[in-house]
Amino acid sequence: xxxxxxxxxxxxxxxxxxxxxADGQGWSHSEPxxxxxxWKRLSDVVRHIQSLHPATHYAVTMTGEIAxxxxxxxxxxxxxxxxxxxxxxxxxxxxxxxxxxxxNAHEAVRHPLHVAASNWHALARLAGSLVPSGNSLVIDxxxxxxxxxxxxxxxxxxxxxxxxDRLACGELIYTGMERTPLxxxxxxxxxxxxxxxxxxxxxxxxxxxxxLLGYLKEDSQSVNTADGKPATQDAARVRMARTMLLExxxxxxADAVEAAETIAASQTILIKNALDxxxxxxxxxxxxxxxxxxxxxxxxxLSHMNWEPQxxxxxxAYGDDVSRVAPAHAVALIAQQIL
Length: 339
Prior knowledge:
- By secondary structure, the protein is of the alpha/beta class.
- It folds into 2 domains: 126 residues, Nucleotidyltransferase, domain 5; 178 residues, conserved archaeal protein q6m145 (Nucleotidyltransferase, domain 5), CATH 3.30.420.190.
- 40% of the residues lie in helices and 19% in strands.
- It contains 14 helices and 14 strands.
- Strand 11 and strand 12 form a beta hairpin.
């Protein structure tokens, strides 16, 4: 086990499909974790990540409380709080709240809706540090969701704080680079000059489209896919064929790429339509901060807008690894500043 630096922080972002961690100094870690299936193992996984990078203090933000293994959000928050507290073996653990504060475990369980779905708020504060004046906007596209967060003088100025309020006002869109089922985006896809209907089944996801378009890296070891097969272009081609009820042998890579382009275009329009009313309140001199693995998709969305804002890339500012775990990195920095 590595030695533990004095007065060091390690922050966790506990999601429903991934767990991410960062120390605010450049170290980061991310791994798949299917909360809805493996929730009983949460403390073990947190303990394992802790062993990779020991610290003296811990902070947590979360979205995994919404997983359907929990009867209600309150139960999910309580489980995450208890699991993280058990894993760290210490009372020196804090939980990020959408009020902008870090609270102890007791307060987190007492006010669960303040710490539930809080990672977007921490991320927005990190993005806001890059645009400390005027009005600006964060577009964060991850594996599952898209967050659109207005900023005022570098601080979050969202209409809603809860995930359901943000969903209602268009600041949270349930579409992302990997986990969105294709039938939620399109009813038909092109195939050799015709439009074919899709089976409304979880045969393929947006991960397959972005793999086929070359914007996600192939990973033959990853089986975090709709069918549990590798995250490769050829396996994505097969999944795409199945969602159209076609024989994979009759569905070429070129066919699959054509279908993927249609999916990307539909996803682009979905996000643009949510962004339009929010951006009407911004001036053309404002900045937009792009974050998450879906920066390419965000750029496609902006290319369909009627003006060209100044773009800041979180990936360019902090590097690929830190950008991928940006909420955890943000919470670590916040903790270092206020505790």
